[in-house]
Design a protein that fits this description.
By secondary structure, the chain is of the alpha+beta class. The protein contains 3 helices and 7 strands; from the N terminus they run H-E-E-E-E-E-E-E-H-H. Helix content is about 25%, strand content about 25%. A 5-stranded antiparallel β-sheet has the order 1-2-3-6-7. A two-stranded antiparallel sheet has the order 4-5. Bound molecules: zinc ion (ZN). Zinc ion (ZN) binds next to helix 2.
């Protein structure tokens, strides 16, 4: 089922999400709904809080390099993530389904290691780099109650507030 994505400045986006305890049918339904919602909105990543569910669940599905399409076999489901290692710096123009129409360069770690569970509660620890590392950090920020616009400089943030208000009025 496609769920409604909450957008800035909805206060729930600043809520800290809680860990999943039961890896059951309810979680699987949430993951499936998140996938449907993300694909419907042409997103490459989604955190549960973006559909107003404050649980530590995120999904990522990058475009396949060759076909430039999102293949379901590339879907990554990450539950209860903890960043265990981080190194390097990288800059990438990020966007967010909860801040529609706004894109800005954001600095992130270049490589990260993440300990997490899959949908069946099995534990994993994986190293991510490139766009995958950026996307995972962006989504983990959502789980911690943060948005990428908080990383903007004061001047850019002011510019964003102005532009965003105008965009919302135009809608
Ligand atoms: Zn986002």
């Amino acid at each position: 089922m496609i769920r409604k994505i909450i957008t800035y400045p909805d206060k729930r986006l600043w809520q800290k999400s809680k860990d999943i305890i039961n890896f059951d049918e309810t979680l699987h339904q949430l993951l499936d709904d998140m996938y449907e919602t993300m694909i419907n909105k042409e997103g490459i990543g989604l955190a549960a809080i973006q559909i107003a569910v404050p649980l530590n669940v995120l999904i990522i599905n990058l475009l396949d390099e060759e076909s430039k399409t999102q293949k379901k076999e590339d879907l990554i489901e990450i539950i209860n993530p903890v960043i265990t290692k981080k190194s390097g710096k990288t800059l990438f123009t990020e966007g967010c389904l909860s801040v529609p129409g706004f894109y800005e360069d954001i600095e992130r770690y270049k490589q990260i290691s993440v300990a997490y569970c899959d949908r069946n509660g099995n534990k994993h620890e994986k190293e991510f780099e490139g766009l995958l590392a950026i996307a995972v950090q962006h989504e983990i920020d959502h789980l911690l109650g943060h948005l990428f616009i908080e990383k903007l400089s004061y001047i850019k943030r002011k510019k964003f507030e102005k532009e965003y208000k105008r965009l919302q009025k135009a809608r």
